[in-house]
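Researcher: Next entry in the queue.
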Amino acid sequence: MPQDSTNLNNLVDIVMSEPVSIWPLAMGWWFMLALIAILSTDWVTQCVQRWKQNRYRREAIKLLKQIESTSKNQKARTLVQLDALLKRVALAAYPRARVASLSGQSWIKFLEETGNDASFQQSPVARLGTAAADIGTTEPSEQQLEVIFETCYRWIRSHAAEAPAC
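Model: Structure for this entry, 166 residues:
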C-alpha cells in the first residue's frame, strides 16, 4: 500500500534551529563598548580634575561663612578679613604678578573684570579696596554687610580662573 502524503499520521515535526546567541558579540559591538568606556573614563577624569581645581573655592566659601558668623561683633575688622580672603582666592586663581600689587580702585576693578560683575563699584562693596586704611572710620551697616557678603560669595563662585601655564 502506497503511503498517502495527505495523511496526517505522516506529518513530521518541524525542526527548530538553536536560537541565535547574543554572545559572542559582533565586532561592531566591541568597538561601541570600547568607545563608551573611553568616553566615560574621560568624562570621569574631567569631573575629578574640575573638582580638584575648585578646591580653593570650597575652602574660601568655608572661610567666608566663618567670617560671616563673626561679623556681627567686629564689622570694621570684617571688611579687612573679606579683603584678605578675596586676595587669597585671587592669588590661588591668577598669577601672583597680576594680583599681588593690586590695592584700592585697581583691586576693585580687577574683581569686577574677573567676576564679570559691576557691583564692586557700588558704594558698600567699594569699601573693600580701602578696608585696611578705613579701619578706624565708620563701620558698615547690617544691610551694607549683607550686600558685601553676597557680592563676595558671588565672586568666589563665578570668577573665571586663568588656566595654569604648562
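Model: Residues 56-158 form one domain.
Researcher: Noted, moving on.
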